[in-house]
Amino acid sequence: MIRLENVHKAFGENRVLRGLTLEVPKGTSMVIIGGSGTGKSVALKCVLGLIAPDQGKIFVDGQDATTGDRDAFLARFGMLFQGGALFDSLPVWQNVAFRLLRGSLKRPAAEAREIAIEKLRRVGLKPDVADRFPAELSGGMQKRVGLARAIAAEPEIIFFDEPTTGLDPIMAGVINDLIREIVVEMGATAMTITHDMTSVRAIADNVAMLHDGVIQWTGPVKEMDHSNDPYLDQFIHGRAEGPIEAVR
Amino acid sequence: MILLSPLGALGRLTLDILSAVGRVAIFAALTLRHILTPPFYPREIAHALLQIGWLSLPVVGLTAIFTGGALALQIYAGGARFNAEAVVPQIVAIGMVRELGPVLVGLMIAARVTSSIAAEIATMKVTEQIDALVTLSTHPMKYLTAPRVLAALITVPLLVGVGDVIGIFGGYAVATQNLGFNPATYLKNTVDFLEMRDIVSSLVKGCVFGGIAALMGCYYGMNSGRGAQGVGRATKGSVEAAAVLILAANFLLTGVFFSV
Ligand SMILES: Nc1ncnc2c1ncn2[C@@H]1O[C@H](COP(=O)(O)OP(=O)(O)OP(=O)(O)O)[C@@H](O)[C@H]1O
Ligand SMILES: [Mg+2]
Question: Which of A49, A114, A142, A220 lies in disulfide reach of A84, CB 3.0 to 4.6 Å?
Answer without folding.
Answer: A142
